[in-house]
Amino acid sequence: MDLNALRLFVDIVDAGNLSAAARKLKMTRANVSYHLKALEEALGVQLLRRTTRHVEPVAVGGGLFRARPQHTR
Prior knowledge:
The chain is mainly alpha-helical.
C-alpha cells in the first residue's frame, strides 16, 4: 500500500474537500482525485462520500482515518 496515498487521504479528510486539499498539497484537484481513486481501487472499497462541495468518510474511511498515527509532520 502506498503511504503517500494514505497521507493524501488524511489531508483530504482534514481539508473537507478535494479543492482545499489540492491547494494545501500544491497539486491540481484532478491529481488529488486521481490518487484518491487509485487508493480506493487498490483497497477495493470506497473511502469517501463525495458531493460537489464536501467529502466525508464512509464507515471504512472513517475507521482508516481514526487509525492513523497521531504525530506531527
